[in-house]
Amino acid sequence: MPGSSFELAVRQPFSFARCLEYMARSPLESLYEVRGSSVIRLVRAAQEPEQGYGPVRSYLVEITCPDDEALYVRFLQDEPGSGQELEGVKRYIREWFDLDRDMKHWHQLSSGDPVMGKLAAEFYGLRIIGIPDLYEALCWAIAGQQVNLPFAYKLKARLAETYGESVSWEGCDYRRFPDPSALAEADIAELQSLQFTRAKSAAIIETAALMTRGELSRAGLLALGDFAAAEKALVGIRGIGPWTANYVRMRCLRDPGAFPIGDVGLQNAVRAQLGMDRKPTTAELKDLFAPWSGWEAYATFYLWHSLY
DNA sequence: ATCCAGGACTCAA
DNA sequence: TTGAGTCATGGA
């Protein structure tokens, strides 16, 4: 029965408009659709399918937030048949928008800062838009290694179209990123034909196999105790380097101190913000970020957003 | 053709 | 641990 809905309270400050502004940055996004002041997405009713609780359904939801006080979530087609599934959807959306983050310290740090103050004010209420699904986060990061963003979006869309489930609603298709089980036994040539390099293809298949075997999971990484340990585990996988690992820490594991320092987008944003005639060096980035210790991920995200 | 893009790997010091 | 050189691919 479509039309059922629920609300999710948000911590202040929160700006849904700022979040949508970030999410709408590319017309090539394939996993959700921003329509004016709402977003529509096919959401899996549980994380970690590799943990072995059988097939889990997905539900098409529309999210609005008229007053920035709470997210208003409506099921557009089916609705969850159990409280457990409903909780899965809720958990996903809380992670997606980082709803449980206490932003107080960030705003204390950034408000009077010579570099970040301006961005923090301009993007007031923007949260790091997360990628709650570990496999999606890994594949998105791997796809984005050393290629321009539009091409990365195309690669992701090809994975979703080729291997992911989809539903149709009001003439539009909505896709969900494939589960690792869909790619665990794929052939490298198969992905190369989608224009992934050999190395990226191998990494995507290898991580899928690890996850399908239960040897890699979001819960497992978080259970390692600290994010450095999670990063070490990720970097141990061929094709995953420090940038990808920190990207996943930032957008999937929800570590506010993650710092993808080698990121060229970050470097270009810093260059523009500081009016430099070249990209900053690693040492310069470390110095610049020193005042934002513990919130490097948020500083990075706000700098990314400044590029658009 | 040449350079850039939200890097990773290898190998040397 | 850090730095240069190499690889890889599409787009401008």
Low-confidence stretches: none
What characteristic shape results from the CA principal axes? globular
Tally of DSSP helical segments: 14
Terminal residue distance: 39 Å
Q: Describe the oligomeric state of these chains in a short phrase.
A: single chain
Radius of gyration: 19 Å
Report the biggest beta sheet as strand number plus sense, adding barrel if it closes. 5 strands, antiparallel
CATH third-tier fold name of the domain at 5-122: TATA-Binding Protein
What would you give as the CATH superfamily of the domain at 5-122?
A: DNA-3-methyladenine glycosylase AlkA, N-terminal domain
Order of helices and strands: EHEEEEHHHHHEEHHHHHHHH
What is the CATH top level name of the domain at 5-122?
A: Alpha Beta
Helix content: 40-55%
Strand proportion: 5-15%
Instruction: Examine the secondary-structure arrangement and name the CATH architecture of the domain at 5-122.
Output: 2-Layer Sandwich
Main sheet strand line-up: 1-5-4-3-2
Describe this structure in words.
The radius of gyration is 19 Å and the shape is globular. The protein contains 14 helices and seven strands. Strand 6 and strand 7 form a beta hairpin. The protein has a domain of 118 residues: DNA-3-methyladenine glycosylase AlkA, N-terminal domain (TATA-Binding Protein, 2-Layer Sandwich), CATH 3.30.310. The protein is α+β, with helices and mostly antiparallel strands. 38% of the residues are buried. It binds a DNA duplex (13 and 12 nucleotides) through helix 6, helix 8, helix 11 and helix 12.
